[in-house]
Amino acid sequence: MTATPIATGSRPNLLDLSLAECEALVVGLGVKAFHGRNLFKWIHKHGVTDLDAMTDLSKTLREGLRETVEIRLPRLAAAHPSADGTIKWIFELHDGQRIETVFIPEGRRRTICVSSQVGCALECAFCATARQGFNRNLTVGEIIGQVWHAARQLDKPPTNIVMMGMGEPLANFEAVVKAMDIMQDDLAYMLAKQRVTLSTSGIVPNIYRLREVSDVSLAVSLHAPNDALRDQLVPINRKYPLAELLPACKAYVANDKRRKVTWEYVMLDGVNDSLAHAKQLIRLLEGVPSKLNLIPFNPFTGSDFGTSPPERIEAFRVRLTRAGIFAMTRRTRGDEVAAACGQLVGRVEDRTRRLGPVRIETGRRIAS
Ligand code: SAH
């Protein structure tokens, strides 16, 4: 495990800065903008966090930087490798909260599952993260810091990023978008837009907002084919029902014929997994370019649900496929180290009870 500098001061964190902000920073310190590009590249492409090792930056610039900013990364607290190659990393943040990040190798794919919040405020009925409560949004540096560490830990760079770890990424809009821009930057992690996927439970106004500023792939946690059931499983549906969610997702992929919405559908025994549900789903998705990921439910201590038997999942999948919807069953990965979908818990000091209902900034209006 590499030693990680963990500064605790209150100076701006270089990990929070976009390329343009790095350029502006060095211009403010009296040198040309391209030195900012070099600085950004040192940190993200080469993984260097010691200013003295950034040999092509002048001594005066390095001194200027040392006086004005710092480099603050999450601390890698533990790594839990699983027999299937999955690794769960636990990161400790400066305030003692802990978040989890997962590496999932699959053939040539090396996917990093990244967290966007400490805990989650959305209370989906079948998710372990929801049980932890919510503490706060992650900063840009804490989000991209997970990718920074992953890139250093692995012998080959990651090929895909999924914003599917702890938290609801669209409830931390600005920081998530900025971090996803850094993931795609050629001077940083060089990931093509189709290789960065944001997964949301369906915060409709922010799906429209995302379309304005980003073109990453969109995954949506659907889990039910009608409002009555989805209201129970994914309570944000009461605020943004299917009649609003579907048009937003359709609009997101509208300007590129090759794009599809990825729908995630957790298979809960006897709850949402019948052929009648499959039929409803086919009707619901009519006219929306779609692919479906069926996720066998991953149990956790205290959960009230069971996993659908494999033959029922397969019957559901075949029914969808026959209707022309590409559907695949996600293989459960990393469950022996509690790294599978919905099992990430970190260490979260729940503040929701103290702070009252969590408000989600949607840019246009406040959704409480
Ligand atoms: N909040 C975002 C990001 C989390 S992604 C979202 O809801 O999309 C994690 C995915 O795993 C989501 O589709 C989530 O619904 C699913 N999930 C949560 N708990 C699960 C569990 N116990 N078993 C299987 N999948 C689960």
Give a brief rundown of this model:
The protein has twelve helices and 14 strands.
Spatial order of strands in the largest sheet: 1-2-3-4-7-8-9-10-11-12
Count of DSSP E strands? 14
CATH architecture of the largest domain: Alpha-Beta Barrel
How much of the sequence lies in strands comes to 15-25%
Number of helices: 12
- The portion of residues assigned to helices is 25-40%
**Which consecutive residue ranges, at least 5 long each, have pLDDT under 50?**
1-7, 364-368
> The CATH topology of the largest domain, please?
TIM Barrel
Tally of distinct domains: 2
The value of Rg in angstroms is 21 Å
Estimate the global geometry from the Cα principal axes: globular
Structural class of the helices, strands and pairings?
alpha/beta
Please give the largest β-sheet: 10 strands, mixed
Task: Give a description of the structure.
The chain has 368 residues and is α/β, with parallel strands linked by helices. It folds into two domains: 14-68, DNA polymerase, domain 1 (Orthogonal Bundle); 75-337, TIM Barrel, CATH 3.20.20. 32% of the residues lie in helices and 19% in strands. The strands form three sheets. Strands 1-2-3-4-7-8-9-10-11-12 form a ten-stranded mixed beta sheet. A two-stranded antiparallel ribbon has the order 5-6. It has a two-stranded antiparallel sheet with strand order 13-14. A hairpin with a 4-residue loop joins strand 13 (360-361) and strand 14. The model is unreliable at 1-7 and 364-368 (pLDDT under 50). Bound molecules: S-adenosyl-L-homocysteine. S-adenosyl-L-homocysteine (SAH) binds at residues 124, 126-127, 164, 168, 199-201, 221, 264, 266, 295, 297-298, 341-342. Residues 124, 126-127, 164, 168, 199-201, 221, 264, 266, 295, 297-298, 341-342 line the site of S-adenosyl-L-homocysteine.
